[in-house]
Design a protein that fits this description.
Layout lengths: L5 H14 L4 H8 L3 H8 L7 H11 L3 H7 L15 E3 L6 E4 L8 E8 L4 E4 L7 E9 L1 E6 L2 E6 L3 E3 L7 E4 L7 E9 L1
Antiparallel strand pairs: 1-2, 2-3, 3-10, 4-9, 5-8, 5-10, 6-7, 6-9
């Protein structure tokens, strides 16, 4: 069973914030998240939701994948399944597995399991500095890119193009989980 990434994630968010010489207030303002929430996350009193993590990573100018990957041990070339870091969104129970072995590598692979009826929305800032592709492995995924809605089924792969927009991932099924792979590459 992979280790809990919570403490390393809290430390990484604090490091990213302080390395920019930002106060909690500054990060809160840039991310649109309360200062109290950032304080709780950094003190490990709560785990950030996927939406909050997307807002924080966007404000910090890094992808959510990079933020999570950098919280893990660096320098690995092989990531065995049982060693891959899991993160579970406390709000939706969405499960994110960091598949890529090396933190900070230009290409990152992330496996996501989205529970039935779950919905996640990320701000445009979470997509502004990366190339992003979504490959559905099982189930169905309704992906909204601004006003454009894509209905994706097993085997479908979508590449995000153009100016970043608010994006929503939704599993329309009432009973079946959706499993997909996200490939993220820095621009």
């Amino acid at each position: 069973m992979p280790n809990d990434i919570g403490p390393a994630l809290a430390a990484r968010i604090r490091l990213e914030r302080t390395s920019r010489d930002w106060s909690m207030e500054e990060l809160a303002k840039r991310a649109g998240v309360s200062r109290a929430m950032i304080s709780k996350i950094e003190r490990e009193e709560c785990s950030p939701t996927a939406t909050v993590l997307g807002r924080l990573s966007g404000a910090l100018g890094i992808s959510m994948s990079s933020l999570l990957a950098n919280a893990e041990a660096e320098g690995r070339r092989l990531a065995r399944h049982e060693e891959q870091q899991l993160w579970i969104d406390p709000e939706t129970k969405y499960v994110r597995r960091s598949v890529s072995p090396q933190a900070g590598a230009p290409l990152q692979l992330v496996e996501v399991v989205l529970p039935p009826q779950a919905r996640l929305t990320f701000p445009p800032s979470a997509y502004s500095f990366l190339h992003h592709q979504i490959w559905v492995l099982s189930g169905r995924l309704q992906f909204s890119e601004g006003p454009t809605v894509h209905e994706l089924r097993k085997g479908d792969c979508l590449q995000l193009l153009g100016s970043p927009q608010e994006c929503t991932y939704r599993n329309p099924s009432a009973a079946v989980k959706c499993r997909y792979l996200v490939a993220v590459m820095r621009r």
